[in-house]
Amino acid sequence: MNQQIDEAQEAEPMETEQSTKKRRVVVPGEVIVSGEDFLPSEGARREGQDILASRFGLAEEAGRVIKVIPITGAFIPRRNSVVLGRVTQITLNGWVIDIDAASSGFLPIDESPRFINKNEMDQFLAIGDVVAAKIWSINVRGIDLTLKGKGLGKLEGGFIFRVSPNSVPRIIGREGSMISLIKERTGCDIGAGQNGWVWVQSDNLDSQIQARKAIEFVSENVHVDGLTEKVEGLLNK
Amino acid sequence: MSSMKSAGITIDTFKKLFTAGKRFDGRGLMEYRPFEVNFEVSNCAEGSARVRLGKSEVIVGVKMNIDKPYPDSPDKGNLMVSADLLPLASPRFEAGPPKFDAIELPRLVDRAIRESGMINLKELVVTPGEKVWTVIIDIYPINADGNLIDAASIGAAAALKSAVIPGITEAGTPDYKHRTKKKLPLSDETLPLSITVFKLGNTLFLDPTREEEEASETRTTFGVSKWKGSYMINSCQKSAPVCLTRAEIEEIAKLLPKKYDELNERLKKFL
Amino acid sequence: MAFKRIDGRKNSDLRPITAKIGVIPNADGSALFAFGNTIAIAAVYGPRLLHPQHMQDPETGILRVNYDLLSFSVNDRKKPGPSRRSQEISKVTEWALSPVLDLKEFPNTVIDVQIYIIQADAGTRTAGINAASMALAHAGIPMRNLVCSVAVGKQDKEIVVDLTKAEEDFDGGEGPTDFPLAKIANTDQYTLLQLDGKIPAERVSEVLTIADQAFANIYEAQKKALKEEFS
Where are the domains of chain A? Predict the structure, then answer.
C-alpha cells in the first residue's frame, strides 16, 4: 500500500519542464511587474503601481496573477500535505510524531487505519517507527495527523533520508512521472513526504543505493533543464 | 537539515549495508571523505586553518598570550585547547552551557597534540619561572556533518603549522601588530592526527557522515603520530556503553598506521 | 593639506564587498558578507519550535538573534561565550531586522539567526546585519525587503563610510566617530541607529546622504549573491 504515498498527495505547486509560465528569481522587495491589471497572490504584494516580492523565490506570472514560489527554506506544514514522521512518544489516546517541522504532529488513536486496542498501541506503532501520514488540521495546539487514506500508514523496511523540502514536487514530478521513473528503473518502493523525508525500500541493497542517488540528484538539480533525461542517464549507468 | 532522530528502519538498513561493506556514497568502510585545508582564514590569529571534510567544516585558530607558567612546570609554555559547538553549525547544537560533546572534543584534540610531543613547550619560555607563552587552540565547527573530532584534529595540526609567534613589547606583553617571522617550536617528524573508529552491530567504519554517525553505537578516538620512526598511539578514548572485542582492538591497531600515513600524506599536500 | 584616508579610499568608498549565500549547508538559510577584512557569516534555522514554552507567542513567530566574535577574530583573544557587548549587538541586530519580517504565519515558533565574525577589522555588526538579511531571505522567510547596513564615521572633520580598525583608532583632531546605520532597502526607513563619538547636529543630513550610496552598493551585492546561486 505504501507504494502509493505520492498518489495520496494533493496537487502542489510543481516544477515542470515545459512550463509556459514566465518565471524568474526575485529577492524580497523587488518589483516583479508594474500595472493596475496584475493581482498579487502568495508571496507578493501591491505597492502603488507595482507588484513586489514578499519573499525570496521564483516569481511566476500566470496571466494576471503574480506569485512567488519558495525555492529554499524549512518545511511549512499545510493542511492535506503528506509527511513522513518518526514516532517519539505514545500517549493514552494517540502517538506523538516528529514530522521535522516547527511543531510535532499528533496521531489520535481514532485516526489509525483500523481499530487499535488502547492496550496494544505499541504493537501497531512503537517508538522509532516511521509513518506516512496526512496533515488534517493545524491549530493552536499543534498539528493533527491521520493515517486514513490511500498510501498512508506505517512504513516497513527500507530507510528514510532527507532532501530539501522545496525539491519534493520535482522529485514526484508532473503526475508522479519522476518518482515513477525511479521506482520502475530501480525496482524500489519509494514515497516522498512534503517535509523533505523520502522512504526507499527494496530487498536489494544496490537498488536502494541507486534510488537514493537518483533522488538526491533530482533534489540538487531542481532548476536544471532536461532533468528527466539526465536521471534516465544516471539510472542506465 | 533536520533534527529528527534516526528511525529504526534506517538503522537496520545501515546495519545491512555495513555488513555487506557498502555505503550510500560509494565509499569503502575504512575510506575517508575527500578533504581540503585552507590557511589564513582569520588574520588576527597567530595561525588559522579551515578544514572541509566532506560536508563537515571546521575552523581552527591559534592565539598566543604571555602568562605565568604552571607551578609544576616553571620551564614550559602552556597549551590550551577549547571548542565551541556553535548553534550556527547544526540544528542539534543548542545555546547555553556546553554539553559533554563540547567538553570532550577539545580534550581529545588536546591529548593527541600534547602527548605526541609535537610542540616543544620548553622553547616557549620568555623569562624562566616568570613568563611563558600560552598557545591557545580554538575549534569552531561551521557545518557539522559527522566526524568533527578528526576534522578538528586535522585543523589543529594545520593551524599550529601555520602559526607565527607575536612580538613582545617593552612592557613584556604580546605585540600582535609586530609579529616575528618565527614559527612555533614544532617537531619536524611528529604530526599528531586523530583517527576515530565507529561501530554499528559488528562492523567497524571510519569518517561517518552525520547520518551514519547517528546510527553508530560507539566510537573510539585514537591520537596517532610518528615518533623515532614508529607509529605511536598517544591517546585514546572509547565512548558509549558498548564494548569493543579484543579482535576488534587488534584489527584497529593494525589499521591505524596505514590510515595515519594516508591522512598525513593528504594533509602534507596543503602544508 | 587635503585629507586622505589611511587606505587611500575616497570618503564615500566602501571596502571591497564579498557576498555569498549557502555557506552553511545544514542551515535553512545562510550567507557570508565581508567588508574588506571584516568577515561575517550568518545561519538561519526555522521557523522551529520555541523553547522554553512560556516565551512562545500564539499570535506570531519570534526572531532571535545571536551575534558573537570567534575568539581569534581579534588581536586580544576574546573569551568564548556571550559578553555584554555581544548581547547588546545581538539585540540591536534583532531590532534592525524585525521590521521587514512578517512572522504571523508561524505562531509559537522562533526563527534563530546565528551571526559569527570570523575576522574583525571594524564594522562587524553592520557586516553581520547584511549577512543575516541575506540568510533570512535565503531561508525563504516572508520579508518585505532586504536590510542594508553600514557604519559612517568621522575622521577629525571628514565624514567617511565603512571605517577600518585603523581608522576607528584614529585620534587626531576631533577624534574618531562611529555611526552604524541600517536601512530597509529602497526606502527611507532606518532600523539601526547607534553612535559613539562626536557628530555636529547640523551634519546629520550629510551623514545620511553619504550613507545612501553605500546602501545602494550593498543592496546590489546582496541581490546579486542571492540570484546567482539560482541562475
Answer: 77-155, 159-236
Q: Please report the DSSP string for C86-138 in residue order.
A: HHHHHHHHHHHHGGGB--TTSTTEEEEEEEEEEE-SS-HHHHHHHHHHHHHHH
B59–C contact, CB cutoff 8 A: yes
What residue ranges of chain C have pLDDT lower than 70?
A: 1
Q: Is the dihedral of CA C75, C76, C82, C88 positive or negative?
A: negative
Total domain count for chain B? 1
Chains near C, with 3+ CB pairs < 8 A? Answer: A, B
Cell numbers that stand for B44 in this block: 588576527
pLDDT digits (tens, 9 = 90+) for B161-219: 999 999 999 999 999 988 899 999 999 889 999 999 999 999 999 999 999 999 999 99
**Predicted structure pTM score:** 0.95
Spatial neighbors of C136 by CB under 8 A, at least 6 apart, are: C29, C44, C97, C101, C111, C113, C143
Length of chain B equals 271
The ipTM assigned to this model is 0.94
Strand-pairing partners, residue B1, are none
Residue B248 lies in a domain: yes
Q: What angle do CA A59, C145, C177 make, to 5 degrees?
A: 150
**Which 8-state DSSP code applies to residue A148?**
-
Find cell 491589471 and name the residue: A37
Q: How many residues does chain C have?
A: 231
Nearest to B8 among A128, A197, A208 (CB): A128
- Is B208 a domain residue? yes
Nearest CB among A71, A102, A166 relative to C109 is that of: A102
- Report pLDDT for B66: 96
Interchain contact C138–A (C-beta under 8 A):
yes
Domains of chain C: 17-228 (3.30.230.70)
Query: Which is nearest to B45 in space by CA: B30, B59, B64, B29?
Result: B64
The answer to whether the CB of B240 falls within 8 A of the CB of B197 is no
How confident is the prediction for chain C on average, in pLDDT? 95
Domain range for B196 is 11-268
Average pLDDT over residues B248-268: 97
Interface size A-C, in CB pairs within 8 Å, comes to 83
Q: Report the pLDDT averaged over residues B45-53.
A: 98
A159-236 folds as Ribosomal Protein S8; Chain: A, domain 1 (3.30.1370)
> What distance in Å separates residue C117's CA from the closest CA in chain B?
10
State the best of A72, A106, A223 to mutate against chain C, taking most chain C CBs within 10 Å.
A72
- Nearest residue of A to residue B17, measured between CA atoms: A205
User: Rounded to the nearest 10 degrees, what angle do helices C124-138 and C204-228 cross at?
Assistant: 40
Interchain contact A155–B (C-beta under 8 A): yes
Is the CATH code 2.40.50.140 the one for domain A77-155?
Answer: yes
Residue B34 falls inside a structural domain: yes
CATH of the domain at B246: 3.30.230.70
Task: Count Cβ atoms within 10 A of the Cβ of residue B21 and give its class: 0-12 exposed, 13-18 middle, 19 or more buried.
Answer: exposed
B141 Cβ contact list (under 8 Å, min separation 6): B56, B57, B58, B83, B85, B86, B89, B90, B93, B148, B151, B152
Closest CB to A205 among B22, B26, B211: B22
Residue B108 covered by a domain: yes
Identify the residue among B40, B81, B88, B135 best suited for mutation to test binding to C, counting C beta carbons within 10 A and taking the highest: B88
- Check CB contact under 8 Å for A86 and B14: no
